[in-house]
Each structure stands twice: as structure tokens, then as C-alpha cells.
Amino acid sequence: MKNYELMFILKPNLSEEERKKTVDIIKNIIVEGGGEITREEDWGKRTLAYEIQKFTEGYYVLLNFTAPPNIPLELETRIRHTEAILRWLIIKLDRELKKPEKLEKKRAKKPEKPSASDL
Prior knowledge:
Elements: E1 2-10, H1 16-32, E2 36-52, E3 55-67, H2 71-80, E4 85-92, H3 94-109
Antiparallel strand pairs: 1-3, 1-4, 2-3
């Protein structure tokens, strides 16, 4: 299973129930497909950088999850048909999670340089 991050923006005129229902549908797709949600953040209503479908605000939600490779494709298909979502982005996180580990290994291998006070 791979690590993914999903950020999506909901229309700001949705009721609280509609927002929760849409987020639950997305979460159910992940869980029913054999994935696991590792982090969920509700960023709330924010001003958009540019107008999208005549909206200047949007409701942001961030989900981090682990899932088989077919789940992001299923999510993308379902999100395209959901009118409540203005924009979305799915990112595979495996490389980003490994970068700090690689940097630590490189630092451990390098010999320390003598400082001016040691000379």
C-alpha cells in the first residue's frame, strides 16, 4: 500500500450536513477499497486565490491515507461526478516521506569538518 494526500475544496454554500455527507462519501471510498485514513484536517472556509465557478471562497479538506494503487483512480472518477467539489488534488507521498531519511543517512556518512577553534 502507498501513502497519498488528497486536498479538495467544497462549494462554500453547502450546508453542514451536505459537507459532512460529501466528506464521508470520499472517506468511504478509501476505506471500502482497502485503504486507511491516517490524518484528516478540516481547514474550514477560506478565500480562494482566484474565482472558481463564480465562487470566491471554498471549504478546504485535507486527507492523508494509505491505499492500494487503484483507489486514487476510483477517487478521481467519483470526484469528477460530484458537483459539490470545486477542485481536488491527489499526491503520492512515498518519495517525500523518504527524503528526510536519505538526508540523515548522507549526514551520518560525511566526516565532520574541523572547526577553526580545533586548529
